[in-house]
Every structure is written in structure tokens, then in C-alpha cells.
Amino acid sequence: MDIRPPSIETANIEWRDGVPCSTRFADVYFSRDDGLEEARHGFIGHNRLADRFSRVPAGSAFVIAETGFGTGLNFLAAWQTWEASNPGDNACLHFISAERYPLDRNDLSQALSLWPELENYAAELLEHYPPPVQGAHRLVLAGGRIRLTLFFGDVLEAWRELDFQADAWFLDGFVPARNPRMWDEAAITALRKHSRPGTTIATATSAGDVRRLLVNAGFSLWETPGFGSRPEMLAGELPMAPDVPARECSTSSRSIAIIGAGVAGSLLARNLAERGLEVTLIDKASDAGTAASGNYQGALYVKLGVEFNDQAKLGLSSLLFSQRYYAQSGSDCWHPTGLIQLAYSDVEADRQARFTARNDYPSAVLRSVDATEATRLAGIPLQSGGLWFPHSGWLEPGRLCRSLASHPRIHRCFGFDVHRLTPCNGKWHIAGNGEQDVVADRVVICAGHLSPKLIPLRNEFRFRTIRGQVSHLPASSLNNPAVVLCGPGYINPAYKGIALTGASFDLHDHSPGLSAESHRENLSMLTSMVPAALNSAAEQPDPALLEGKVGFRCTTHDYQPVAGPLTDPAGRPLEGIDLFTGLGSKGLSYAPLLAEYLADRITDQPQCLPASLARRVATQRCHKREIPQSETIGV
């Protein structure tokens, strides 16, 4: 079957005697006797998970990795056991699973409906289950107590791309004779690289080749009775090395300071606080979300490239994660109206035609619509069709930031204008405007266009500051669209009597004040993109009288964001300092996933970004010139 990216071929399922069977591998997904008891016997019991879960300390993580997600039954059994075992406060179960042929949502729902006791867990999984597109998908479940990383693709690619160390392995999947690639030497070697001393392993197969490969990889194995019709199975452990210290995974004692309380900083602060860390959120304004993140409305969208390269992969991953995040945590700040990316010109229409010819996105992500359907969706006349994103919409960014910053473990240090960061005795000292220094073990710079001035390196960086002005249009002057419409700019549905449009793109204007000329440019853009947007029967907006807001975007030379440890030009990380900026005009889309990624790194938990995308956002690429080591400032 010819499947164009980013879609991935889903499983072909037949139901036999009430059990799902793979037609591709001619094997069942779980035992006809009782699939849930099979999971408990084989994977939960032989990895001793109930006891090990109960001893996970506060603020720590336990990591299970699995070959073959299938129906998700093993995952739900582990989730149920985790909840019943009472691990420490703010502890997290990470479950990482690779699946080459994922079930579609309907088959998954039918399979999991067989176990009413798992109904609540299954419902949450189904609510967040990603569309069938290639790559890594991070699902945050149970209020953050469970983090599922689903990799849709080949198992070897998954283990090459994902950064984690497992505490326990579920070696599932169809029998080796029918699915040899999952059990070959390369797969077992990769498995070993993701295992730490003491990692346990369980598998329903007892095939001699599998046993030999695991033993050669260093695992101690033993046979044990199987479940149902299987007479035996294998369990094992990677022996502890005498000179390897016990793993310390709790981070609750470490202090984190985040400079900048916009969308990026507020999301990261909340993410870390919910993992149990104490966070100091610093901003020179009097509250969170007042600068570029303080717009009344903001559209959630990315512009996906014609070629499905790493840039498009990052955009898609960010969009899907942000849609899930805001639906789950956006409260009443999130308005999922849907969004149309208009084919507003001949050039854009040609680009979208090439985009749809070379890519195959599931309709749950996006689909092409003609002008007639676009008009129906928008509720106002449109001259062109475009790309319809049914799960996008718009947010109230400033309100969202203030909501995120309200948490008992987030200490808000507002009205603090940071002047200097200085390393001293293994900590960072953050000096402000005459205030007492803030001292932290780790600092993250999330200060938007002000970030380059705070970076403690004597170097130049490839960042640009771009002024953007949005215009607030009275609803009475509009033919109000029911969805977000975007192209060279965007127009949001009116809310509380106002609709936001813009934003201007001013490379050489650094004035913070509102400009009638920028308002005029926004109105010109809007009427060119959506001629019917303004109500001809109403008084036309006067650019000189319009309200609005000016913000300054921070962009990089390649228009890709920056998130990760701050490095010198040679790639050496500075101890205890990270950079999170350069999100440009797509901060609402990029920030949730990159905040998750940075929180993973800071807490030393499995990372949600695959290696290829982590490189895409690395800080080193933004250095402008190489400098001698003597000019760096390190701890």
C-alpha cells in the first residue's frame, strides 16, 4: 500500500471469537482466555511492578518501555496498578511504546470495551489517542501522573530516536516467527542501550533465538509458567554492577528560576510545579502574560511545509500536542472553533496544491476545502478555499498565562527587572533593579526578545526582534466569522464585542506605541484576505481611533524555536542554565510541547522530542560566531 507521509498504515483487524486478530501477522492481540489477566500475569507480575511502584519516591519517575502497543491493554494494566500502588507525591509513570501498525480509534475502542473495570482509563486514552501520523506522540494523562510516549513507526527507529532509560520492559508483539524484525539482534541491542542496571524484562515468548540474544545482551533470564495455553515464558533482569551507584531520580529539592512570564515561561513553570518542583517565576511586569503574550486573542496554527521534513515534523508535533494540551488544561481560555488556512493568493493556492499532492494528512488533522465549504464553515462569504484544521481555534493568551502562574509551588517574583546572571558556588545569582538577588540551582531564560541581553556569554546570537501590532475591531464593524481565518495575517471570531486581527510585521520599527499606519496595514491585509470581513452597512473602522496592542516577537535566523541547555559555540553546555525563546508568531503552538520537553530534561525524565527534533531546537545553532573558550562564563 502506498502511504504518503505523514500518515502511517494502520492495523488490519479481524474479530474472531471476540478477540482482535492481525491479518498481517496472523496472530491475536491478546489471549482468548483473558487478555487482562495475561497482562497482569506476564508483565505486571514478572516485573514486580506493584511492589516497585509503591517504593517510587516523591517527585521521581518510573519508566516502562514496550515493543508493540497494540490495543493498549498492557499500558492500561500498568496504569491501573500504578494508581493502586500509591507511589510518592508527584511521582510519574512514563510508559514508552513503539507501534508500526497502530489501531485506529474505532478498533481500539472496541477492543478495550471488553474490560469494564478499565472503562475510565480507556476513555481518557481514547480522548487523547493521536491520529495515525508518523513519529513520537506524548500524551499527558491522569493530571500528569501518567505520561505515555507513543512512537508510530518502526521499532528500531523508535529506539534510535527516543531518549530514555527503562526500569522495566514489556517485550510484547506478535510471535517472532511472524514478526522477526521486532526480535532481531539489532532490536535487542538497541533495547540493551535503553536499559540501566537492575532493569527487569518479561516476554510471553520463550523462543530460543530470543533467549540467546537477550543473554548475549547481558540479561539474566529464567523460565517461568506462562498464561493460558502458553506453557512457559521468560523473565529476567540486567544485573546490577557493584560499582554503579543507586539511581537518584528525585528532583524535588532543586530550585528553578524562570525569567519571563509569557506563554513559554508560564507553561514551563506550571509543568515543573506539577512535577513537584519549587519554581520562581520572574518578570519585570506586574503580572504574567503582559508583553507579547498578552494579546486579547491568539490563533493556534502552524504553516506546514510542502516537504515533510524535520521542520514540518516539529510543526505538526507541536500543533497536535498543543491541541490536546489546551483542550485538557486551557479551561475557558481555549476556544476550539476550528481554523481555515486560506489559499488567499495564486501563490498560496499553488503551494497548497503541491502540499496536498505530496502529503497525506488524516482528516482529523486537516483537509482541503473549496470556497463553498470554506464559506459554510466560516459563516461568511469567502473567495477561496484552503486547509481546514478542525481541532484548532484561538486562545486568550494573557488570561492563560495568569491562570498557569497561579500554583502553590510557583513563587511569583514580578516587578523584577533582571539585569545580570552570575554563576557562583554552583548556583545562579539573578540581579535585578536594586532588589535582593534571586538565587537558584537552575535558571531558564524565557524572556522573548530580551533573552539575548540576558545570556551570560560574550557572544553574538542570530536572533531578531520583530515588532507586531494587532488591531481590535468592534464586532459591529464585522461580518463575524465563526472560525479563525488566517493567511498573511488572521482574523478571530469576535469575543465580548471585539475581534483581533493582524499582526503587522515590522522589521525596522521598534516603537512600543500604537501606530495608525500599522492599523491601516492590518485593515488592508484583512480586506485583501477576506473581502467580506468588514460589514459594508456599518461604519468603517478609523485607523487613527482603533485600539490594539504592540508586541515584540523574538525569531531566529531559521525561524525555528530554541529550547534546551545553553551551550557555548563549541557545543559545551553551561551548567544549570537553559534557553527557551525564538518562538516568533507561533508561540501558542510551539510552547506547550517545548515546555514539556524542557521539563523532561530538567527532571531527567524520558524526553518527548525525538533526537532529530531535539537537534532542530538546540541552542548551539544560534551562535553567530565562534569565540575563544576564555571568553565564556561558566560555573
TrEMBL record:
MF terms in GO: flavin adenine dinucleotide binding; oxidoreductase activity, acting on the CH-NH group of donors; tRNA (5-methylaminomethyl-2-thiouridylate)(34)-methyltransferase activity
Listed GO biological process terms: methylation; tRNA wobble base modification
Keywords assigned by UniProt, alphabetized: Cytoplasm, FAD, Flavoprotein, Methyltransferase, Multifunctional enzyme, Oxidoreductase, S-adenosyl-L-methionine, Transferase, tRNA processing
Region FAD-dependent cmnm(5)s(2)U34 oxidoreductase: start-end pairs: 259-635
Gene name for this UniProt entry: mnmC
Highest taxon in the source lineage: Bacteria
Reactions catalysed according to its record: 5-aminomethyl-2-thiouridine(34) in tRNA + S-adenosyl-L-methionine = 5-methylaminomethyl-2-thiouridine(34) in tRNA + S-adenosyl-L-homocysteine + H(+)
Cofactor(s) the protein needs: FAD
Similarity field: In the C-terminal section; belongs to the DAO family.
Task of the protein: Catalyzes the last two steps in the biosynthesis of 5-methylaminomethyl-2-thiouridine (mnm(5)s(2)U) at the wobble position (U34) in tRNA. Catalyzes the FAD-dependent demodification of cmnm(5)s(2)U34 to nm(5)s(2)U34, followed by the transfer of a methyl group from S-adenosyl-L-methionine to nm(5)s(2)U34, to form mnm(5)s(2)U34.
Domain FAD dependent oxidoreductase, residue spans: 256-601
EC number: 2.1.1.61, 1.5.-.-
One Gene Ontology cellular component annotation held by this UniProt entry: cytoplasm
Domain MnmC-like methyltransferase: start-end pairs: 116-237
Entry-linked InterPro entries: FAD-dep_OxRdtase, FAD/NAD-bd_sf, MnmC-like_methylTransf, SAM-dependent_MTases_sf, tRNA_MAMT_biosynth_bifunc_MnmC, tRNA_MNMC2, tRNA_S-uridine_synth_MnmC_C
Protein's UniProt keywords contain Coiled coil: no
Segments of this protein annotated with the region tRNA (mnm(5)s(2)U34)-methyltransferase: 1-239
Protein name: tRNA 5-methylaminomethyl-2-thiouridine biosynthesis bifunctional protein MnmC
Subcellular location: Cytoplasm
